[in-house]
């Protein structure tokens, strides 16, 4: 078995790739209190790291992540979190505040 195939198998264990039509999971893009872009999916926040968006609660050893295509549709999603979603509030200017 090749190294490339092993990497693909490990990625598939984390979540799932979407083939054909882009995945239609609803999400919102917002700004954090520090002005960084965040994606919110089901009450969980994701911050951009290289080509992937990772769960903002990395301190909890959460491995949830997602990836967008050029049309900003989710093409990869691992939404298995090790914690509950945070209570969030959106300010009138579009920033997210943790409650």
Order of helices and strands: HEEEEEEEEE
Structural class: mainly beta
The proportion of residues forming helix, as a percent range, comes to: 10-25%
Low-confidence segments? none
- The helix tally amounts to 1
What can be said about the biggest beta sheet? 7 strands, antiparallel
Strand tally: 9
Mean pLDDT: 77
Instruction: Indicate the overall shape.
Output: globular
What Rg, in angstroms, do the CA atoms define? Answer: 15 Å
Task: Provide the spatial order of strands within the biggest beta sheet.
Answer: 1-7-6-5-4-3-2
Strand content is: 35-45%
In whole angstroms, how far apart are the ends?
48 Å
InterPro entries: Znf_FLYWCH
GO molecular function: zinc ion binding
Protein name: FLYWCH-type domain-containing protein
Keywords: Metal-binding, Zinc, Zinc-finger
Task: Describe what this molecule looks like in 3D.
The chain is mainly beta and 99 residues long. It has one helix spanning 3-14; strands spanning 16-17, 28-31, 37-41, 44-49, 52-55, 65-68, 74-78, 88-90, 96-98. It has a seven-stranded antiparallel sheet, covered by helices on one side. A hairpin with a 5-residue loop joins strand 2 (28-31) and strand 3 (37-41). The protein is globular, with a radius of gyration of 15 Å.
């Amino acid at each position: 078995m090749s190294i490339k195939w092993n990497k693909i198998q490990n990625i598939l264990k984390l979540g799932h790739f979407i083939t054909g039509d882009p995945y239609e999971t609803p999400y919102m893009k917002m700004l954090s209190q520090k002005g960084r872009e965040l994606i919110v999916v089901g009450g969980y926040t994701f911050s951009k790291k290289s080509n992937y968006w990772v769960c903002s609660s990395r301190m909890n050893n959460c491995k949830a992540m997602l990836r967008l295509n050029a049309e900003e549709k989710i093409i990869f999603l691992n939404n298995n979190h090790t914690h509950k979603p945070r209570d969030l509030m959106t300010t009138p200017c579009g920033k997210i505040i943790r409650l």
